């Protein structure tokens, strides 16, 4: 009878202790080693729910049913970490959210040999989008002519605020929302008076990001789409006939890892084939990265996971979502432009861009007269950045205000100018922004100019007593600019936590992407922007990610038996390394390096038929983690498997991950490295391929055998690549070198299977 007494005493203790500790609580994800995993599939959130008896008492029954983590103080977390059976305790991290033309830019069309024809427009694929939710009434989610739901679909359309089961259809086949992590870190809803923090406790999107990304991946055909007349055309996602399932894991205060894990867990069980995550942060070790942990489980179940590389470029080693079992996507530009020129009083014309509806501006007489230019107006700190409330109405009213990039958002600067009575704005790039040209649908006439033009503008302003400028609307232009090029903001490699794998994997359109938008938001997302449009423009690797998610759906629709690794290989080995003019892809003023573009720019038509693929089994990733020196507990945290790395590496002597790209590091006093790869024929029988190598400077490269012959489809052949660093280069201590390996089809001349080679010298 002592056991009930213990429970009663513990209850009394918690009754008085819990309120005292509440002010110091933080949410943690507690990962234990269960004595026995029930069944073939054990959901991640349930695994994280197997807490000690004390934690189960602290958690309410409702919290346990929702899944997620435990609320602990720092000392409690440290004490629990030392308890038997505890694998890891991780803080519930917050992650940030990272068209009418892009499908055309990528060569997607209905021609007989194209990717859309071969894949049936992605028919049968299900893309799970983890983001801010969805605006189901958007025309991009109409189910007109959509096929029935796939029989494997097990998901739901979850009821919630302004959302019910009728919100879903044959296009938007499922929707869920996850608020445990969000609620733990922000227990109350935003005040009703705070329109900037509007939120729905349902899958409904209050912020637009999720609606935009979901429609980019698989939006249905919408004729006459535009943003107030700009970018007019037919809006379509990459896979127009793929189904979409939405998992709302992001809120006004970010995306918490416990919610992300719960969403991924449900998506896997629901039956999605592709997971698209346009979110992330900075690089962290894989065993601390909830996205890496959740995506490993997805990969084991045959679900391809596509992630954004992050927007922290051009800083080296800033790439996020580095796990080798996910496809990591950087951002590129397109050749569509929205010119808005600035004519100065001295006759000079500066090039700028804007998506302010200049057609309406011109019709209403705007731009016909020059306005006085002002910069650093008012006495408040931050006036040069046009921070809210920093501008003096007496000095800016009726004038064109020059606002420096930085600190606050681009559209927010325009709102600050408008509130102070300014008539127009020039957004001036700083040196760090160079010529980057992400446009906005500004609330007043405005243009953004590059750093070179900014320098000239400020010299002009300082050279005359009354500087003036006039905005000249240029409409929409296509095909005149070199593209693709690397977006300046796109995060770069090398991978900080896993340099033996080249990241990002590929780049895809991520600048000035027009896609679906909620009816409750203005196109700038600003609270006081009362304009409404079914579409708006956004930039970021968040926009690049769903392009590749949709392309992955196309490849999987055409090749449903291919593994996630085989699909990624097809996309990587067929990627372009030249722009539409046949010249090298650029990164600012320089030729783009591998740490910016990975294997290159996605080419969906070629990806449908790559000839050969580098396939990877889930067990291979475990062996790879062993080669990186991960501990038993660290691997268990990621894979939920007991692993003896000594035995694993003994069985897999000279193991190297069968990745489509090659990344080599010569350590101090090391001049030779050998790797192994295996190719599987997915092209034609009786085919022969010959190796062609362009070696990185300072390295000799040999391939054995140099010729591979495949008699059958699905036949696999292995080869070795040996690298020898020259003595001269090693002494000089060059940091990196780049080259590539191509397997060229010599029998029919149809295929070229390209792998980038990155070499580094480290001490």
TrEMBL record:
<feature type="signal peptide">
    <location>
        <begin position="1"/>
        <end position="22"/>
    </location>
</feature>
<dbReference type="GO" id="GO:0004252">
    <property type="term" value="F:serine-type endopeptidase activity"/>
</dbReference>
<keyword id="KW-0378">Hydrolase</keyword>
<dbReference type="InterPro" id="IPR045051">
    <property type="entry name" value="SBT"/>
</dbReference>
<protein>
    <submittedName>
        <fullName>Subtilisin-like protease SBT1.2</fullName>
    </submittedName>
</protein>
<keyword id="KW-0720">Serine protease</keyword>
<dbReference type="InterPro" id="IPR003137">
    <property type="entry name" value="PA_domain"/>
</dbReference>
<dbReference type="Pfam" id="PF02225">
    <property type="entry name" value="PA"/>
</dbReference>
<feature type="active site" description="Charge relay system">
    <location>
        <position position="542"/>
    </location>
</feature>
<feature type="active site" description="Charge relay system">
    <location>
        <position position="209"/>
    </location>
</feature>
<dbReference type="InterPro" id="IPR023828">
    <property type="entry name" value="Peptidase_S8_Ser-AS"/>
</dbReference>
<dbReference type="InterPro" id="IPR036852">
    <property type="entry name" value="Peptidase_S8/S53_dom_sf"/>
</dbReference>
<comment type="similarity">
    <text>Belongs to the peptidase S8 family.</text>
</comment>
<dbReference type="Pfam" id="PF17766">
    <property type="entry name" value="fn3_6"/>
</dbReference>
<keyword id="KW-0732">Signal</keyword>
<dbReference type="InterPro" id="IPR000209">
    <property type="entry name" value="Peptidase_S8/S53_dom"/>
</dbReference>
<dbReference type="GO" id="GO:0006508">
    <property type="term" value="P:proteolysis"/>
</dbReference>
<keyword id="KW-0645">Protease</keyword>
<feature type="domain" description="PA">
    <location>
        <begin position="382"/>
        <end position="456"/>
    </location>
</feature>
<dbReference type="Pfam" id="PF00082">
    <property type="entry name" value="Peptidase_S8"/>
</dbReference>
<feature type="active site" description="Charge relay system">
    <location>
        <position position="131"/>
    </location>
</feature>
<dbReference type="InterPro" id="IPR041469">
    <property type="entry name" value="Subtilisin-like_FN3"/>
</dbReference>
<feature type="domain" description="Peptidase S8/S53">
    <location>
        <begin position="122"/>
        <end position="579"/>
    </location>
</feature>
<dbReference type="InterPro" id="IPR015500">
    <property type="entry name" value="Peptidase_S8_subtilisin-rel"/>
</dbReference>
<feature type="domain" description="Subtilisin-like protease fibronectin type-III">
    <location>
        <begin position="657"/>
        <end position="759"/>
    </location>
</feature>
<dbReference type="InterPro" id="IPR037045">
    <property type="entry name" value="S8pro/Inhibitor_I9_sf"/>
</dbReference>
<dbReference type="InterPro" id="IPR034197">
    <property type="entry name" value="Peptidases_S8_3"/>
</dbReference>
């Amino acid at each position: 009878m002592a056991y009930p007494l213990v429970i009663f005493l513990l209850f009394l203790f918690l009754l008085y202790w819990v309120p005292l500790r509440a002010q110091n609580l933080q949410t943690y994800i507690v990962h234990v080693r269960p004595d026995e995993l029930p069944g073939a599939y054990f959901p991640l959130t349930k695994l994280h729910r197997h807490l000690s008896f004390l934690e189960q008492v602290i958690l309410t029954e409702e919290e346990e049913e929702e899944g997620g983590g435990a609320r602990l103080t720092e000392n409690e977390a440290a004490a629990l970490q030392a308890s038997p059976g505890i694998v890891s305790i991780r803080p519930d991290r917050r992650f940030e959210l990272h068209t009418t033309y892009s499908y055309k830019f990528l060569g997607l069309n209905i021609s007989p040999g194209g990717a859309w024809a071969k894949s049936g427009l992605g028919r049968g694929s299900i893309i799970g989008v983890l983001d801010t939710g969805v605006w189901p009434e958007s025309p991009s989610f109409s189910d007109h002519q959509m096929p029935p739901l796939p029989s494997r679909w097990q998901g739901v359309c979850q009821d919630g605020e302004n959302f019910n089961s009728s919100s879903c259809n044959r296009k938007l086949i499922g929707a869920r929302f996850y608020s445990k992590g969000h609620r733990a870190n922000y227990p109350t809803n935003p005040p009703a008076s705070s329109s900037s923090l509007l939120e729905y406790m349902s899958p409904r999107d209050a912020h637009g990001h999720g609606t935009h990304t979901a429609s980019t991946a698989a939006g249905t055909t919408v004729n006459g789409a535009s943003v107030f007349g700009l970018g007019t055309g037919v809006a379509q996602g990459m896979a127009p006939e793929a189904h979409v399932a939405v998992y709302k894991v992001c809120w006004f205060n970010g995306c918490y890892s416990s919610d992300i894990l719960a969403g991924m867990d449900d998506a896997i069980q629901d039956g999605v084939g592709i997971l698209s995550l346009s979110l992330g942060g900075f690089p962290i070790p894989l065993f601390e990265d909830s996205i890496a942990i959740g995506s490993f489980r997805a990969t084991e179940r045959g679900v391809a996971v596509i992630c954004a590389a992050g927007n922290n470029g051009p800083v080296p080693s800033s790439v996020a979502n580095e796990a080798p079992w996910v496809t990591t996507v950087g951002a590129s530009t397109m050749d569509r432009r929205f010119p808005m020129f600035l004519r100065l009083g001295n006759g000079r014309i500066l090039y700028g861009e804007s998506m302010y509806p200049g057609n309406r501006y011109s019709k209403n007489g705007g731009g016909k007269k020059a306005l006085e230019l002002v910069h650093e107006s008012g006495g408040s700190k931050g006036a040069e950045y046009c921070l809210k409330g920093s501008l003096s109405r007496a000095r800016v009213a009726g004038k064109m205000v020059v606002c420096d990039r930085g600190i606050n958002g681009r559209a927010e600067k325009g709102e600050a100018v408008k509130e102070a009575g300014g008539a127009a704005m020039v957004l001036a790039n700083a040196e760090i922004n160079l010529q980057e040209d992400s446009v906005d649908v500004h609330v007043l006439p405005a243009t953004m100019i590059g750093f070179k033009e900014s320098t000239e503008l400020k010299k002009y302003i300082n050279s005359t007593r009354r500087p003036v400028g006039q905005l000249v609307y240029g409409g929409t232009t296509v095909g005149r600019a070199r593209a693709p090029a690397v977006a300046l903001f796109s995060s770069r490699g090398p991978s900080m936590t896993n340099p033996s794998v080249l990241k990002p994997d590929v780049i895809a359109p991520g600048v000035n992407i027009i896609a679906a938008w909620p009816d409750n938001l203005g196109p700038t997302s600003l609270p006081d922007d009362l304009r409404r449009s079914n579409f708006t423009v956004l930039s970021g690797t968040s926009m690049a990610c769903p392009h590749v998610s949709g392309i992955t759906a196309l490849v999987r629709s055409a090749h449903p038996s291919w593994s996630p690794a085989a699909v990624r290989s097809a996309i990587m080995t067929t990627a372009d390394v030249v722009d539409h003019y046949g010249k090298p892809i650029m990164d600012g003023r320089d030729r783009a390096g591998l740490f910016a573009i990975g294997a290159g720019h996605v080419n969906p038509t070629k990806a449908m038929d790559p000839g050969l693929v580098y396939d990877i089994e889930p067990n291979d990733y475990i062996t790879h983690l062993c080669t990186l020196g991960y501990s038993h507990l660290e691997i268990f945290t990621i894979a939920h498997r007991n692993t003896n790395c000594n035995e694993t590496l003994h069985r897999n002597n000279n193991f190297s991950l069968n990745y489509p790209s090659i990344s080599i590091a010569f350590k101090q006093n090391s001049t030779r490295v050998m790797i192994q790869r295996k190719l599987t024929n997915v092209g034609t029988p009786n085919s022969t391929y010959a190796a062609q190598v362009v070696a990185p400077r300072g390295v000799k490269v040999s391939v054995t055998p140099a010729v591979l012959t495949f008699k059958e489809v699905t036949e696999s052949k292995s080869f070795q690549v040996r690298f020898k660093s020259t003595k001269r280069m090693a002494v000089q201590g060059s940091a990196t070198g780049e080259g590539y390996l191509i397997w060229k089809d010599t029998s029919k001349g149809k295929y070229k299977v390209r792998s980038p080679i990155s070499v580094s010298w480290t001490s």
